[in-house]
């Protein structure tokens, strides 16, 4: 399970999940508990960044985005 947090209240959950993420502009206390810190701040593309990362790691990115990059898919 993945979890995205940005403040102190998120730390207990972040310590228990398989993939803990925090956004770039999270409070500094949260960042040590994150497996990944986004390049984008919250509200500025962080959620999309996380979704793309997960899809790429799972090998699903190409299949999910094929219809956007290829014209003739029938």
Plain-language structure description:
It contains three helices and three strands; from the N terminus they run βαββαα. The model has no long low-confidence stretch (mean pLDDT 94). It has a single domain, classed as Rossmann fold (3-Layer(aba) Sandwich). Strand 1, helix 1 and strand 2 form a beta-alpha-beta unit. The protein has a three-stranded parallel beta sheet with strand order 1-2-3. Helix content is 34%, strand content 14%. The longest helix is centred in the last third of the chain and has 12 residues. It is elongated and about 50 Å long. With 74 residues, the protein is an alpha/beta fold.
Helices and strands in order:
Layout: E1 2-5, H1 11-14, E2 19-22, E3 36-37, H2 46-57, H3 61-69
Parallel strand pairs: 1-2, 2-3
Tags for this entry?
74 residues, alpha/beta, Rossmann fold, 3-stranded parallel sheet, 3 helices, 34% helix
Strand content: 5-15%
Distance from first to last alpha carbon: 35 Å
Domains counted in the coordinates: how many?
1
The overall average pLDDT, rounded, is: 94
- The CATH homologous superfamily is called HAD superfamily/HAD-like
Which strand order spans the largest sheet, edge to edge or round the barrel? 1-2-3
CATH architecture: 3-Layer(aba) Sandwich
Low-confidence stretches: none
SSE string: EHEEHH
Tally of alpha and pi helices: 3
Radius of gyration: 15 Å
Fraction in helix: 25-40%
The level 1 CATH classification is Alpha Beta
């Amino acid at each position: 399970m993945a979890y995205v947090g940005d403040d102190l209240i998120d730390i207990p959950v972040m310590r228990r999940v398989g993939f803990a993420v925090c956004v770039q502009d999270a409070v500094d206390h949260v960042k040590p508990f994150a497996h990944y810190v986004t390049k984008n701040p919250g509200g500025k593309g962080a959620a999309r960044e996380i979704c793309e990362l997960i899809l790429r790691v799972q090998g699903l990115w190409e299949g999910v985005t094929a219809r956007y990059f290829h014209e003739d898919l029938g």
